[in-house]
């Protein structure tokens, strides 16, 4: 069964309009908890209550009000919000195409999939997707959804178009103002070289599947253990800050440990194929070492 679109409208670029539906691309791990009064089995409920009368109010009877100061509010109906942007709420208007690499990731907010909502116009969807993939560009667009205007980047990802909602420039905080003085560029040559060595030793290929939500699994185990009446044992302690005097020692030990793990990881496949035919295993090993030598020469150069 196909997912239900949370928004539907048109991608517009130039004089071309492509009907599309917007779908959630992600879902977060979440273990739901209800609220209880401690020592009882009494649930805590959140209700919409009129602060003057103390009576609960039905959702349909609630309107929005904007605080304009002095205890005065301007009341706005949901329909009024929809009426001021009837076209914008049905159109993803691409105003410019930009190189994907030029967009700072801090602007990205949430990912959605875009899918053609009309089979007759699927070719237009495919054309835009393939053009974006070939040029490594994203279409910058704006649209209105749920009474809010969004800035968005539309990019190609395999067979699908992905829409990334984005923060506007004035929504991103200035670190200089928010965080105060930050450390200057490092002048400690030895420590910097060791830090670079550690980064290199810990580098690898990005594979999203390598990372799991271990905290949620721990929460599930906590619930299961408490249900069975088991004793809860803390398995880890919070880390402590590395002092300046211990920094070099910590970096050196980290580099050595990372290199050892990498070496062990490279040997693992060879052990796996040892029980199979020996000749192909040797050939595969020879092929693997060739690029490493050339990479080492590049670094030396």
TrEMBL record:
InterPro entries per UniProt: DNA_bd_Ku70/Ku80 (IPR006164), Prok_Ku (IPR009187), SPOC-like_C_dom_sf (IPR016194)
Domain Ku: 54-184
Bias (Basic residues): 260-270, 279-301
Pfam families registered for this protein in UniProt: Ku (PF02735)
Region entry Disordered, spans: 258-301
Gene3D superfamilies referenced in this protein's UniProt entry, alphabetically: 2.40.290.10
SUPFAM superfamilies reported in the protein's UniProt record: SPOC domain-like (SSF100939)
Keywords: DNA damage, DNA recombination, DNA repair, DNA-binding
Function of the molecule: With LigD forms a non-homologous end joining (NHEJ) DNA repair enzyme, which repairs dsDNA breaks with reduced fidelity. Binds linear dsDNA with 5'- and 3'- overhangs but not closed circular dsDNA nor ssDNA. Recruits and stimulates the ligase activity of LigD.
Oligomeric and partner information: Homodimer. Interacts with LigD.
The name this protein goes by in its record: Non-homologous end joining protein Ku
Annotated source species: Kribbella ginsengisoli
């Amino acid at each position: 069964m196909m997912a239900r679109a949370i928004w539907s409208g048109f991608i517009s670029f130039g004089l071309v309009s492509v009907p599309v539906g917007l779908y959630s691309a992600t879902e977060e791990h979440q273990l739901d908890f209800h609220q209880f009064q401690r020592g009882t089995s009494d649930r805590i409920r959140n209700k919409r209550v009129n602060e003057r009368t103390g009576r609960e109010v039905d959702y349909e009877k609630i309107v929005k009000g904007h605080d304009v100061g002095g205890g005065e509010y301007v009341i706005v109906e949901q329909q009024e919000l929809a009426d001021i942007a009837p076209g914008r709420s049905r159109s993803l208007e691409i105003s410019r195409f930009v190189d994907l690499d030029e967009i700072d990731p801090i602007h990205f907010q949430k990912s959605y999939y875009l899918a053609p909502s009309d089979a007759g116009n699927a070719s237009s969807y495919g054309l835009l997707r393939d053009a974006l993939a070939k040029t490594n560009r994203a279409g910058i667009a704006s649209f209105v959804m749920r009474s809010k205007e969004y800035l968005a980047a539309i990019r190609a990802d395999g067979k699908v178009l992905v829409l990334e909602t984005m923060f506007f420039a004035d929504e991103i905080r200035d670190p200089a103002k928010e965080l105060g003085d930050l450390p200057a560029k490092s002048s400690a040559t030895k420590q910097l070289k060791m830090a670079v060595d550690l980064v290199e030793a810990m580098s690898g290929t990005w594979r999203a599947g390598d990372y799991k939500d271990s905290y949620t699994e721990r929460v599930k185990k906590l619930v299961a253990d408490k249900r069975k009446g088991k004793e809860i044992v803390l398995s880890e302690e919070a880390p402590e800050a590395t002092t300046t005097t211990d920094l070099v020692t910590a970096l050196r030990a980290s580099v050595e440990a990372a290199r050892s793990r990498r070496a062990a990881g490279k040997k693992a496949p060879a052990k796996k194929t040892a029980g199979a035919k020996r000749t192909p295993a040797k050939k595969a090993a020879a092929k693997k070492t060739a690029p490493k030598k050339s990479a080492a020469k590049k670094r030396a150069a």
